[in-house]
Specification:
The chain is built from 6 helices and 11 strands. With 211 residues, it is an alpha+beta fold. It has a 5-stranded antiparallel beta sheet.
Amino acid sequence: MSAAYAAPTNSEAALADARETFAEPGGFDYRDGSPALLFDELQLEQQLEARKQAAEAEATTQSAANAEAKKPQYDYQKVVLPIDRVEGGSYTNHSPFVTWVKGENSDRVYPVPPGVTFPWTIDGFADPINRPGEVYKVIDGLHTFYNLVDGEPSVEFSSNNKLAAIAGLTVAQSLKGGWKDASWHAEIRAQTDFGWDNLFEISRPNLASNT
């Protein structure tokens, strides 16, 4: 038998098998010696559009997650001492500035950013930007909401105990609470009450950080 009619060698058979393997949709057709990609154009366009929509959806989800992550998140369970965790009241800052609260039965002060709620009773709070050098005293058992209305500080209250509210919590607040200045601070210090020192100190605008 002449060389021109010799049977295929093992290597030639293996090459033929390999070419058949790649001669599939989505693969390469090596049977004619060229790496021509076999594909359905319509199917490819559909796949590309599906990938584009998936990427856009993922980007939207990520953007929403980033926006949520930028909201101030304060875990006061970790930063507030147990002595400060007095149930029955709270403080919510609806103003556009950082304010500061004094925990009940404590001289510690805590920053409360805009839109954040301090979930326990407070003795008082300070707004160094709008009421520098002053503090606002809050009586026990009130939920306090601080805002600015037409640029002026506005304080509202609510209570879990409706009977107590009727009995005069808000009246007591109007008589004993409210904005206090340096003269009131001097009076209570003369009575050896130094628990408000830190809040008055932070009420000085040059010491408070509102960034």
